[in-house]
Design brief:
By secondary structure, the protein is of the alpha/beta class. The protein contains eleven helices and eight strands. Helix 8 packs parallel to helix 10 (223-234).
């Protein structure tokens, strides 16, 4: 499990989905972390310019809405959360548009719900839209349509959403950027000696036991959700890297095959 095999297949990835979590995009105050967003945009722009088909699945809409109005997720009703998503999605996209246009890239927003993945017709339409955006060299930015999605039609977290997007386009690689370096042998918050696992080749019980979930005030999902998402991505042979979104040049490092984060080569 700790083997540090070379990551050659990553270097050949032609279709990539990058999922960035709320914690990588916001400050503890809930306000957007502009430096973070800018360095992410710069890295993604470079990958896009290199001819790789790349999609950004971005969380942060609800957090951006909460941050704008100075509210906390735990204090508000479902319809208020949906309102926060409606407000925050705009704030987020405004920021992405500003940053990506600096790097010469046009963006296109797609907001999806579970129904889009459940229905083959809707999935095919979504694929058609993504292919057209690639053809026009526009960067797709995807989020769940939180403003209208209620429990029954919700994917619920963006780890799963990004894996489902990988299924639709047949991505070679899913990169999940989080606030943790990857999967550890033990909880690093409780055990500072815990070692990072660099490579996972089977999702056995031992690996599952290491994955615990979180649902804090801003974000949804944790390692358990990520492992389930990796299983979904695996269906279309998409490999996954979980890495720390706050590390400088993290995407460049991953794509150059450097041993960072946890690589799921299943
Ligand atoms: N779609 C949610 C948002 O943009 C985030 C879901 C998640 O944290 O996975 O705020």
């Amino acid at each position: 499990m700790l083997a540090q095999a070379p990551r050659d297949s990553i270097k050949n990835a032609k279709k990539i989905v990058v999922k960035v979590g709320t914690s990588s995009l916001t400050h503890a105050s809930g306000k957007l972390n502009l430096n973070q967003i800018d360095s992410l945009a710069r890295e993604i722009a470079d990958i896009h310019h290199s001819g790789i088909e790349i999609i950004l699945v971005s969380s942060g809409a609800i957090a951006a809405g909460l941050g704008k109005l100075g509210l906390r997720k735990s204090d508000i009703s479902l319809s208020d959360k949906q309102a926060m998503a409606a407000i925050g999605q705009n704030i987020l996209m405004h920021m992405y548009r500003k940053m990506f246009s600096e790097y010469g890239i046009e963006i296109g927003q797609i907001l999806l719900t579970k129904e889009d993945f459940d229905s083959p017709e809707r999935s095919a339409l979504c694929k058609g839209t993504l292919d057209a955006l690639f053809r026009y060299e526009v960067l797709p930015i995807i989020n769940e349509n939180d403003a209208v999605a209620v429990a029954e039609i919700k994917v619920g977290d963006n780890d799963t959403l990004s894996a489902l997007v990988c299924n639709i386009i047949g991505a070679d690689l899913l990169i999940i950027l989080s606030d943790i370096d990857g999967l550890y042998e033990d909880d690093p918050k409780e055990n500072p000696q815990a070692r990072l696992i660099h490579q996972v080749t089977t999702l056995d019980e031992a690996v599952r036991a290491l994955a615990k979930d979180t649902d804090n005030d801003m974000a949804t999902g944790g390692m358990g959700t990520k492992i389930s998402a990796i299983e979904i991505a695996m269906k279309t042979r998409t490999k996954t890297v979980i890495a720390n979104g706050r590390e400088k040049h993290i995407l460049r490092d991953i794509l150059s095959g450097k041993i960072v984060g946890t690589y799921f080569d299943l």
